[in-house]
Design goal:
With 681 residues, the protein is of the alpha+beta class. It has 24 helices and 24 strands. The strands form six sheets. Strands 14, 15, 16, 17, 18, 19 and 20 form a seven-stranded antiparallel beta sheet that branches. It has a five-stranded mixed beta sheet with strand order 2-13-10-3-9. Strands 5-4-7-8 form a four-stranded antiparallel beta sheet. α1 runs antiparallel to α2, α12 crosses α13 and α16 crosses α17. It is elongated and about 115 Å long. The relative contact order is 0.06. The C terminus is likely disordered. Bound molecules: 2-(butylsulfanyl)adenosine. 2-(butylsulfanyl)adenosine binds next to β3, β8 and β13.
Length: 681
């Protein structure tokens, strides 16, 4: 007997028990399923070699699972068992061989179904009425969760039809669909509560809520796959597949993805077809299950310790794995969203090698406390981008630095901004950032923006790839010769190219509202663009907008105002607008009657000196919007002199001529007074 093996065996027992506790009781596993399976297999292989070591407390002798003391206990009439796993083709082949040899049959009929990734429950119906719902617990004793079970809409409280047994215990899986999981986590985020790592944990956590009202708010789903107690026993049909048919007729949810297989080849085909469709399913599965179909054959095969011999779970390759974080970098999306991404030590997960995992946003990195050098569990779920499930904090060596969002965009070096109250940080590069230009230009050309007919996203992509355009103003410099070099723009028939040039030319005759909308400023939709156009009247006035002025515009609050100011503060965005003006786009909008201020309407102003907060240009734009006229020199016709500090000769002249001198404060007072009376604030 090897002491090393004995020590290892003791360690394995301890570890598996610990992980069972984390998984079943706390709904908070700290290792991946694949790692758990590895530990478990090692334990079994030692037990095979040293059967005398096996004691009652070995995890192999228990079903796994824990009953929470808070719920009342339910003793299961027959134990709720678990399934042995086949993790490879060879293991499946030996399962079929064992069944064939055990029964002396050449080709076995199997019932095939999905292996739902949730938690097993037992539903007891008496005279067709749901009287008790319980979790599996440790397999012998579970938790009474009747009130919570009753909140699951798919579970009938009364069975349908005539052929209902006196007492039947329906077994199946409670789980959460992907959509409901996303929704729940969104809610948790809003409430500032802990998010769930995966739908399984969310389902388990929700079903075991002490308050059924909370359980009721969390949409859970259910599929049935088995039977426990039954009276009279004669009610039992011939086979498992027949049982599921009966269940469906009784109103119990049975998954449509099931079939009856004849022999090994059919099993392999079922596995393959489900594996291909796995990503399309609206819920998580971790494999498929095969059960010898006929109940008399199931009974002949019987059970071995905690699992039946007649059934097996054929698992998909693990979707989770452990690896190391080599670096945390940020990526810029098409909308300028900055996403932290973990660069990983390559790891093979579910058939592909992962080298990156998304960390979603800064808060997520801090919440999971992911740091460079950390050992982490990564998960690949269907088509979605791989993500880090959690950090194995006890494996952290040394003091890695906490992640902080960089200040500048890695692509265009513009400032990164995170608006208060939002989780996403964004590059402020806007029109200038190469990562965003494709989307920016497509938006610019959109029918409701500059309306450049024929310029869709594919053409924009081609133009960018051929280096013909970099930002929207480049469109107005395109020539026929350059365009016809593009694929799709047939050089013989120049019609497409010249139509496009015509559409670009036509777009110059536009409205200010369309132009402002076309700039693609965050939070500035069509309606806001119209309001801004009405208020500012010209693109130059808009470019000089101050926060106070913006806040005076209909429906513009601090978030929209700061987004506009950010956009306009970027030199490259201003550069693009100026180039657009140079190219001949300079629409004017009539100042709206809403913005006209009666006291200032038609009045002539002269500006002098340094105003405390407004620049001269801003003051001019404000006055013009309000309906006033701004001229250069003081005369008898001048109504007001808007004077700041260090006012010189103009002030003297105004005083001489008796022209009213107004301060910036007085002007703002009038403007504010007017917007209050119009209900604009
Ligand atoms: S049959 C005697 N069928 O997998 C066999 N189980 O590892 C009892 N599961 O505890 C289970 N889908 O929570 C069966 N189609 C399916 C299943 C399924 C998921 C779960 C169930 C069970 C565990 C066994």
């Amino acid at each position: 007997m090897s002491t090393m093996t004995a020590q290892r065996y003791a360690w394995l027992k301890e570890q598996i028990s610990l992980h069972d506790r984390n998984y079943y009781l706390l709904d908070q596993p700290i290792i991946s399923d694949a790692q758990y399976d590895d530990l478990y297999r090692e334990l079994i292989s030692i037990e095979k070699e040293y059967p005398l070591w096996i004691t009652k407390d070995s995890p192999s002798q228990k079903v796994g699972g824990y009953a929470n003391q808070v719920f009342s206990a339910v003793e299961h009439g027959s134990p709720m068992l678990s399934l042995n796993n086949a993790l490879s083709e060879e293991e499946l082949i030996s399962f079929d061989r064992r069944c064939r040899e055990g029964l002396g049959i050449d080709v076995i009929e199997y019932a095939c179904e999905l292996k739902f990734d949730g938690l097993a429950v037992s539903l007891l119906y008496e005279q067709g009425i749901l009287v008790r719902g319980a979790t599996r617990g440790d397999g012998t004793v579970g938790e009474n969760v009747t009130d919570n079970i009753k909140t699951i809409r798919q579970i009938p409280k009364k069975l349908l039809g005539e052929n209902i047994p006196e007492r039947i215990e329906v077994r199946g899986e409670v789980f959460m669909s992907h959509d409901d999981f996303q929704l729940l986590n969104e809610q948790q985020r809003i409430l500032g509560a802990k998010e769930f790592a995966n739908p399984r944990n969310a389902a388990a956590g929700s079903l075991r809520q002490l308050d059924p009202q909370i359980s009721a708010q969390r949409a859970l789903s259910f599929f049935t796959y088995g039977i426990g107690e039954l009276a009279p026993a004669s009610w039992l049909p011939r086979s498992h597949a027949d049982l599921l048919e009966r269940y469906a007729k009784m109103g119990l949810p049975v998954c449509e993805d099931r079939s009856v297989a004849q022999g090994l080849q059919d099993l392999q085909a079922f596995f393959q077809s489900i594996k291909e469709r796995r990503d399309e399913l609206p819920f998580d599965i971790d494999g498929v299950v095969y059960k010898v179909n006929a109940y008399d054959l199931q009974n002949q095969l019987g059970y071995v310790s905690r699992a039946p011999r007649f059934a097996i779970a054929h698992k998909f390759p693990p979707q989770e794995a452990m690896t190391k974080v080599l670096a945390i970098e940020v990526q810029v999306g098409r909308t300028g969203a900055i996403t932290p991404v973990a660069r990983l030590e390559p790891v093979f997960v579910g058939g592909v090698t992962l080298t990156n995992a998304t960390l979603h946003n800064e808060d997520e990195v801090l919440r999971k406390d992911v740091r460079v050098g950390d050992t982490v569990i990564v998960r690949r779920a269907g088509d979605v981008i791989p993500e880090i499930v959690r950090v194995l904090a006890d494996r952290r060596i040394g003091q890695a630095a906490v992640f902080h969002m960089p200040k500048h965009c890695p692509i265009c070096h513009s400032q990164i901004e995170r608006v208060f109250g939002e989780s996403i940080a964004r590059c402020t590069g806007g029109l200038f950032c190469p990562a965003q230009k494709m989307q920016a230009i497509t938006h610019f050309a959109h029918r409701r923006a500059m309306n450049i007919d024929g310029l869709g996203d594919r053409l924009v992509e081609q133009l960018i790839q051929s280096n013909l355009i970099n930002h929207p103003a480049d469109l107005y410099r395109l020539g026929l010769n350059a365009l016809v070099t593009l694929e799709r723009m047939d050089s013989k028939d120049k019609k497409l190219a010249s139509n496009l040039l015509q559409a670009i030319e036509n777009s110059k005759q536009t409205t200010l509202a369309r132009l402002i909308f076309a700039l693609g400023i965050r939070h500035v939709g069509e309606t806001t663009a119209k309001d801004l156009a009405k208020y500012f009247g010209s693109i130059t006035a808009f470019m000089m907008a101050s926060e106070e002025a913006l806040l005076r515009v209909n429906d513009v609050g601090p978030v929209v105002a700061s987004s506009i100011l950010y956009f306009l503060a970027q030199a490259h965005n201003r550069e693009v607008i100026e180039q657009l003006i140079t190219c001949g786009i300079n629409p004017k909008e009539e100042a709206s009657s809403d913005q006209v201020v009666a006291e200032l309407m038609g009045k002539t102003f002269v500006l002098t000196g340094t105003l405390p907060s407004l620049t001269r240009d801003q003051a001019k734009a404000l006055l013009e919007t309000a309906g006033a006229k701004v001229v250069g020199s003081v005369s008898k016709k001048t109504d007001y002199l808007l004077a700041g500090s260090d006012a010189g000769s103009k002030l003297e002249k105004a005083q001489e001529l008796g022209v009213t001198v107004m301060s910036e404060q007085e002007l703002i007072g009038i403007l504010q007074q007017s917007s209050v009376s119009k209900g604009l604030d």
